[in-house]
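Predict structure. Input: diguanylate cyclase, 330 residues.
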Amino acid sequence: MPDPDDATLREALADADVYRTLLESTRAIPWKIDWASMRFTYIGPQIESLLGWPQASWSTVEDWAARMHPEDRERVVGFCVAQSQAGVDHEADYRAMTHDGRYVWIRDVVHVVRRADGAVDSLVGFMFDISERKKDEEELLRLHRELERLSMTDGLTGIANRRMFDTRLGTEWKAAREGGKPLSLVIVDIDCFKQYNDAHGHVAGDECLTRIGGMLQELSQRPGDVVARFGGEEFILLLPGADETAAREVAEACVRGIARLRIPHGGPGVGDIVTASLGVGTARPAAGDTARDFLAAVDRRLYDAKARGRNRIEVLEQGHRAAALRAPRP
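Output follows.
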């Protein structure tokens, strides 16, 4: 007569075989680490097909850490150890090195097993290959950044647009106020641009704006400068850290650059080539000053340049700055 204990044992072993078969047939890779020895007591055979390392080569947590991308290692190991010591289940994404030196994105899902006295007994978990998911996430991020870039770019000239300028002006104004540094603006307005369009057509007008925008962008050599299309035939240069002398030099370079382009104008009552009028100003922001008032004051200098004959530079003098900020535009 069969022994009932033998039947129970066989049933238990059969169940264990079923569980092992189920675990080892999934794409997720099961594993278990003994906390006291920090050694793997089990890792699924799928690890070899995924990473190329033999199943038997996963002996200790040092093997796991050593096969992680150097840029991820300190962050991930530190996080997992801290969470495990606190008895908190957790997840970690990292790049695991394959046997042939490539990298695969892995997500480790970790469960902390505790003994009756609350001490950590072991860690069990699953490794998942999330490389395709990461590719999708990176593509979405790239598309988001591209969309953000396009939203800050003028569609015609390819330089920064008004939105980008407004964003940077606010940021740089605050930085200048806090750092006690100068901030300069140069506003460039193409002279008699309506007559240019009337004489040459809007396609030529677009080409004129594109050429001038490109030239102004090339003039800007400092990494922090912003060259933007301000609207219509106006361009604006934001020059963080530039004092009065530097701003005037940039404005003069803009005038020379436009002249070198020698874009034919020849409209009624206008000179032979395209020129521009410029307003220039430098601020050292103090409490109570606003970027909007400063921008308006420089814009009034541009208006003065156009009213006084065009193709000239008008500078916001520091000695008259307070009055200029309050003065209404004519």
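The beta strands are 29-34, 39-43, 90-97, 103-114, 120-129, 183-190, 226-231, 234-240, 276-283, 313-315.
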